[in-house]
Amino acid sequence: MTVPPTPAPLAGFRIVDMSTVLMGPVATQVLGDYGADVIKVEPPEGDVMRHAGMARTPRMGAMYLANGRNKRSIVLDIKQPAAKEALFALCRSADVFIHNVRPAAMQRAGLGYEDLRSINPSIVYVALVGYSEHGPYANQPAFDDIIQAGAGVSGLFVRAGLDEPVFVPMTVADRVTGLTAAHATLAALLMRERTGIGQAIEVPMFETLVQTVLGDHLNGQAFEPPIGESGYSRLLTPHRRPYRTLDGYIAATPYNDKQFRAFYAAIGRADEIDSNPLLGSQSARASNYHATYAQLAEIIATRSTDEWLALCRAHEVPCARVNSIDDLLVDPHLEAVGFFERGEHPSEGRIVQMRPSTRWSSADVSIRRHAPRIGEQSVELLAEAGFGAERIDAMLAEGSTVDGRPGPRD
């Protein structure tokens, strides 16, 4: 009996992706992993993120190799009429159009929601912006660092005891916003399946990250009138950090009553749980995280990392070794679950990729396409859009598109 191929969750959906840098490409990477046909529309010079990280060949950097997977690339210089016509042709059959260009610029280019809705009434139009267009910050430029600062992330480090604000050393604003855009797109597609109605969606970085920050830290300001200050004390105490051991560092978090009792019993200090009013219950610890975590820091400094890992795991107390980036590459759990996929990229040679983190019982969520070169599918996609060979050749000659297919010239 022939086993039918495993379907991808978004097979048959087409995404026209005119986003650049990171938050948009993160969103469309997720949608591509789920099986959508993601058409990455790039200017002739390509997405700037192609330059991020080390590269074997120009414009094929490490970050792009990760976020560019499961997509097809077409070059369209939309300042030229033929390229803009091609973009409209792609959008006529698309389910989603996504971009991170300022809305005013998209309106001037004739690529606003109403423009695309006029040729495809059911399209889901997703605009990723720095700040909502309905507020006074609308026209301000926004990048990950700017949003981390403005949304309060950097200032949290001062509340937590550092001398000055710092940035989280990863693109947290871009990635959180990209994931938000992905699930908003999925919700809009589900709504369209039920109602037949398309949608315009605004996904702002600032508001998205503020919601993330205040979800933890609104605290007493959640009430009117306020019943206390902002900030969740457990997250802000300076003692909430990896603890120093005799030979390194460990993260250990006894959290509930059972775990605290197990931890103190394991070190021979069980009587302290009932005799110390700061430790005896979840509510008592919640009012005294600073003192509770300070005591944990003193205790953990007395043994080695391996000793603490063994003790905590034996008594089901959450713990972890503090890994470096390089440690992750040889982590035994990640190896066991096949997290890293190694294979041959058509132009970049042997590469390492991270598979989608979710597992599905009966769906294909996987890496099906390696990140394409600039315009690698330009000719293919123009032909799919109904452009004949002569028109495509004319567009190549005038520079409104680029043929990025590998060939003998490489």
Notes on the protein architecture:
With 410 residues, the chain is an alpha/beta fold. The chain has two domains: 14-212 and 337-398, Crotonobetainyl-coa:carnitine coa-transferase, domain 1 (Rossmann fold, 3-Layer(aba) Sandwich); 243-321, formyl-coa transferase, domain 3 (2-Layer Sandwich), CATH 3.30.1540. It is 40% helix and 13% strand. It has helices spanning 23-33, 62-67, 81-92, 103-108, 113-119, 144-150, 153-159, 172-195, 205-217, 233-236, 257-266, 271-275, 282-286, 289-300, 305-314, 325-329, 332-336, 378-384, 389-398, and strands spanning 14-18, 37-42, 71-75, 96-99, 124-129, 199-204, 243-244, 249-252, 319-321, 340-345, 349-354. The strands form three sheets. A six-stranded parallel sheet has the order 3-2-1-4-5-6, sandwiched between helices. Strands 7-8-9 form a three-stranded antiparallel sheet, with helices on one face. Helix 1 links the parallel strand 1 (14-18) and strand 2. The radius of gyration is 26 Å and the shape is elongated. The mean pLDDT is 95.
